[in-house]
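Hello K.,

You asked for the raw outputs rather than the summary table, so here they are, unedited. I folded two proteins back to back in the same session to keep the settings identical. This is the first:
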Amino acid sequence: MTVNTFIAEFFYCIIGVIFILVGLKTLRDSNLKTRITTALFWFILAFTFIVGPHIPYWITGLCVIAIAVLTAFNRVHQSASDVPSAEATRTNANKMGYKVFIPALSLALVAVLAATFLPFGANNAIGISAAVALIVAFIVTKAPAKSAVTDGSRLMDNVGTVGILPQLLAALGALFTAAGVGTVIAKGVSAIIPDGARLIAVAVYCIGMALFTIIMGNGFAAFSVITVGIGIPFLIMQGANPVVVGALGLTAGYCGTLLTPMAANFNIMPAALLETKDKYVIIKAQAPVAIAMLVIHIILMYILAF
């Protein structure tokens, strides 16, 4: 095991411990009717994160199926949490002021510096920056150490099952690529796009990126599939600049990110954290901008790529 792998597994184990804490928190809520199945969801998820590399793949697959079944049958719910009153929250906010942003900014800054100057890889840089940001948060807020456990588990419980969508969607993107979905799309699109119809090809590519991102919830996963199926054969092979096609194609996919609940970390998690009455309110607010930006992407790619 390399040093990078060891560090990555260490951070995965920490994530698993957080899931265990959420499960224990759920078990203590005697008023929650689904506390057993909800706790089971978090314990199974913790199991895959902690011992996943040391067990056969088929066991991990069964674990994924199990948590999917629990979620599909609505057996996973948020447990009760001890949250500060509105008055206490307002008082602490006034006391902290803009200093509350220091941990978040340090998270981003340390992540960039660690990824650039440390030989541990970009993924481990995120874990390192999270540890540093936690220390900074303690220094800034002077909160007790137990807050990392209580508030961390409460936050994860509040986010709920959508918190694991990024991992599942990334795996789904790799599966689609390996299964040759891009080739199938290319065959279907060839019957739609006439020879030499650059504008139609650009529109199909950009809209396809947005639509597939809406399905996948992940612009990177959609990029590999749609670029292989449409971007390369119908644009780049027809003389389009690959740099322009790649750059604008990926950001065209991000227009789809703004429109889908599958992009849980962008659209559903913030709604859960803000405790909005409508969990799709963020998507509804972003929709006009997303559609306008998609049209702009089509125009720019048509003008700049050829």
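The second followed immediately with the same parameters:
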Amino acid sequence: MSQFPESIASHYHQRTKYAPETIAQKGKTLDWANQPLPFKKYKIGQVIDLKPYLSRQKEAIETPYSDNWLRLSLLLLYSYGLTAQVTTIYGEPFYLRAAPSAGGLYPAEIYLVSRGTSWLPAGIYNYQVQTHSLIHFWQDQVWEDLQAGCFDNEEILAEAEIALVSTAIFYRSAWRYEDRAYRRICLDTGHLLGNIELSAAINDYQSFFLGGFNDTLINKLLYLNEAEEGAIAVVPLIDLLNYNSLPELSYHHSLPSKIDPDYPSLPDGELLSYLHQATKIDSLQLPTNPNLETNSVEDKYNFPFCTKISTANATFIDWGENFSELKNTILERRSTRAYSGAEITMGQLIALLNFTYQPEAYLDQGLDPSPDYFALEFIETFIAVSGVSGLEEGCYYYAPKAQELRQIRFKNFRKELHYLCLGQDLGRNASAIVFHTADLQQAIAQYGDRAYRYLHLDAGHLGQRLNLAAIRLGLGVSGIGGFFDDQVNQVLGIPEAEAVIYLTTLGVPA
């Protein structure tokens, strides 16, 4: 018998798994008449156009604070701004954004909370992605309410003057993916947080990710209808231009919720909403877990007989002077639709892993050497190699602390990968597929049911770093959130306790 109690998070994960015998029942005909809009509209509020501050256009409206506005405009652009417009067969334009989203549904919204500065009045703003503008829909002193909602993370919020809040409009994703949409919502938000982390560094801000907050207070602060939209992450931003050296600041980026073992019998269609409500936090409680293993998770896959390949001497990815190549990569990133089946090099794969898991190696390039995650200690990384020159086919475990690949299975998995990815050719023709998994029960024991949010946010964050590194190296990349869950464990030889969270395919674009 498991040492862990049943919980709504583990129940949700089991209920939303895809399986070969039930996959047909999971799908439904899309209700095109009620397709949600990917942009939020406000009827009242002061509109602040951010477009004139981009590039040399800012000179036309030069003010004493134009540099601050330029940095904010760029930060939002590289985090979530529009990057392309595609004409659909119906003649309607479809907009792509800097952060990828499952099905192009973009459930995330960005709000900005200002303490009140010489250039940015106090209050709450919504980032209007379609027009690259802010709408100042609430003008008032709100910073104390933000502090209370974040359980008085005093040191961070005392130094910051602005904060971003990422929320999710649930129906945007549930319209297509039903109850399983919560997984994709948190993965999508993780992509966005990955961009915010890098965009902050580009624009001389230090970002801090707060995943533990009083949901009800933050939602009330933003005037959200909690049945339709909820806060997922709060990101205070400290302006590094105000400091010669930023002091050490203590804070809690992850706090536990309760564990709900007494959930009711829930029909399909109500599971997502119940899970989100059950993972809310209403009072401060620091994470404790006497059952948590003290050994590194890497020890689980440190077999004496397996082949071990060092990744410590990886080639660094050059992000260009003044981050020029990083900026271009963020705006040029696209999800690959087809792979040629050709090989990538082992050097490319190791460079991808190095950028994703060894951020301290990029301090000299001006990037954050220790970006925030929420429950990274529970995330495991496996790589199914089908076409990497210099690397034998098979399944590898990646140990980020030891910086080595450990081969745990010897096999060409192309046929199985095609099947696991619901028959998508991306799975069969990819050169390698990165699998993010987690010991879900251990994570719940540490962070309560809210761990489910944290694990998917972290997997999306890692996935976004893989995305950008692959594009910079001229490779193709595409995340997959739909797969046969249990069969992944069986095919790759991963223990059942490892919940499969996310897949990222890598290869040569067709």
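The first strand starts at residue 46 and ends at 49.

Happy to rerun anything if the numbers look odd on your end.

Regards,
P.
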